[in-house]
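seq:
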Amino acid sequence: MSAITQPDIDPEEIARDTEAAMEKISAARREIARIIFGQESVVERALVTLLSGGHGLLVGVPGLAKTKLVETLGTVLGLDARRIQFTPDLMPSDILGAEVMDQAPDGSREFRFIKGPVFSQLLMADEINRASPRTQSALLQAMQEYHVTIAGQPYDLPRPFHVLATQNPLEQEGTYPLPEAQLDRFLMQIDVHYPDRDAERRILMETTGAHDADAEAVMDGDALIGCQQLVRRMPVGESVVEAILELVRSARPGETDDDLAGLIAWGPGPRASQALMLTVRARALVDGRLAPSVDDVLALAEPVLQHRMALTFAARADGHTIRSLIGRVKSRIG
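struct:
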């Protein structure tokens, strides 16, 4: 299998850096596992999202420790974390900040910008779909360009900067669907399911006592940035690149066979291909491997694609789902 690498990258240097990063990531996973029980796949995908330099959308019913997971990640990775509880009356200025008028002792007045909670390294947007679309959209520029513009003046955000948003299922009362443009800003949609029986038993025993376990930092922002740079230097095999292209292009209307074409209203753009190219490398790093495989592409197809696609009305009426459609697309690769 031929590998695609940058010509100025030393493979031995990548191997050394990868081994060092693996130790840090393994320590982070062990620390998170002390706090979060029975959600190994969710934890892995959240770490993959951050190591890829992206933003994640955690979707699940209330009470599945989505907020606790984000708090734990912020502590373990040593990031400056802030939390915003999204509500119907939340305003964009509550996220970005606002200008206020200051009066000096001499009577002169000038505007002063007060930064909002978006100026953090890890922003937890809790129950993001309970705010209005206008407020949800306040994060668009921050998530894509890593700065915000207030009264025509740009303000850079700290690095690293990540948004981990939690979302209740759309069929619940008082929720607003996220705009398609904002959904596309999320690297992955991470579905959070109920824990199995053994995990729930452990939750009962370890979280209802007199003392709760507290997470400790094992990394910091600079270490995370180093891992993100390493992910972009990791080699990718030609077969992996072809699998990504086949997967994403097959999920678009007009670029697949007649059967699937009639089911897809709109599909993933090039940002999905970029997301897969990064996340398969990060997943390999999290799993302790030096390079990704086609299996990584198949494993990440659903979280990367499902929020970037929509079914036609006829497809929904016939009982098709996004998951079943992605499964059919994956079968062409596997």
